[in-house]
Amino acid sequence: MYKKGDKLVSIEVNEVIILLLILIGYIPVIHAYFKYKSTITWFFLGYTTLLIGSIATILETFFYPVLLNYVEHLIGTLLSALLFLTNAYLSNKQIVLFEKELTKKIKKFKKNDI
Predict the structure, then answer these.
(1) Least packed by Cβ within 10 Å: which of 31, 45, 109, 113?
(2) Taking the domains of the chain in order of start, what are their residue ranges?
């Protein structure tokens, strides 16, 4: 509990649990980012904005509630969704290109084998 003016303000338990889960999940994301930087950049950025939004959710209880509410929803929700969407699109595009190249090599191999 925290006293803010005449009111007692408390942090909601579910917000803290969500922040802890995001922080725990952030550890392998950071590891993967430094290992595979070129292929995981968009996912890393999306997860980072998700973390920023979660931190803003808790901090808005104590100060700058309007500003941090905008940060929570614009960065933590909207921007992270757009970054995850970009990651999914680019990953799918990379998989499709890989499949095309693999199919060409298989056809070439079969043609030379006969």
Answers:
(1) 113
(2) 2-113
